[in-house]
Hints:
- The chain has a single domain (6-285), classed as 4-Layer Sandwich (Nitrilase/N-carbamoyl-D-aminoacid amidohydrolase), CATH 3.60.110.
- 25% of the residues lie in helices and 28% in strands.
- It is built from seven helices and 13 strands.
- The radius of gyration is 19 Å and the shape is globular.
Amino acid sequence: MKPPDGLKLALAQPQIREAETADGREADATGMIRNAGSSGADLILFPESFPGPIEAGGSRDSGPEISLACKEAGTAACWGRIEKGEDGRFRTVALLTSVSGERIGRYVRSHPATGDVHPVLSGVPMAPGEELGMFELDGLKLGVAICSELWNPEISRILALRGAEVLLAPAGGAFHRVAANWQLIARARAIENELFVGLTQQLFGDEVGSALVAGPETVLDTLAKPGLLVVELDLERSRWLRARDDSMQEPKEFDALPGLLRARRPELYGELGLPVSGLYDYDAAGG
Length: 287
C-alpha cells in the first residue's frame, strides 16, 4: 500500500485527577477520541499507560470501549496500559487500534525507565520487551518510543532506518525540571532523523504540559494545558529532505540539513552494537 502524503495527528494531554477511577480515565480517553474524530484526525496519541491501568493490580480492559470509540469517530488510536504476563512480571505496552476498531499493533517497552520510576508510578518494576516499536497505519510506518526511550538516540535512528516517518513518543509525565530538555530531545530526534515527532504526557497536579509536534525543520505546535492538540503533518516535505544532499546554494531551500539518513558510514559505528561493562541490566531490574 502506498503511504499517504500527509497525516493529521492528534495529541491527547489529559489532566490526572486525584483518586480518579479507571472508569473516569476510560471516559476521558473515549471522549478525546471522539473529539479528535470531529477534528478530522487520522490518529490520536495518548500518553504512556493511558487510559491504563497504570498501576499493578488494575484489571479493567479499556480495549472494547476504545475500539467502539475509534469506529464511531473514524480515527485510529495509540493508547497504553501495563500488562501482567504469564511469568508474573509486568510490562508497559502501547497498542494501536484502527478506525475499524481492530487492534493492529502492540509494542512492549524495550527500555523501561531506570531507578525507582516504575515502582513509584505503578507499584512494581517493569520487565523489558525484546523488540523496538514499529506500527503501520494505512501504509505509513510509525515508530514508537515510550517516555525516556526518546532520550536514547539509537532507538529513534534504527526506527527511522527501518522506514518510520512519524515517531510517536507517549510519555508518563512529572517532567518538571527536565521538561525543557525533554522538548529539546524531541526536536533533536525529529531533526536528525528527518521525521515528525509527537510528544505528549499525563499532567499530574499543577504540572505544565510539554506536548508538542516537531518536524525536521521546525516545531509545528505545542500545548501546555490539558486538552487536545491537532496538527497536519506534511510527509512529502520530510521525504524531500531525506532525498536531498546539503548545498551552499543561496537562498537555501531548507531550514535543517537534508540527507542525514544517507550521510552515514556504518562501518565506523561498530562500537554501538558491542556489549560493554556497566550497562544497565534491564532484565534483572524488571523483577
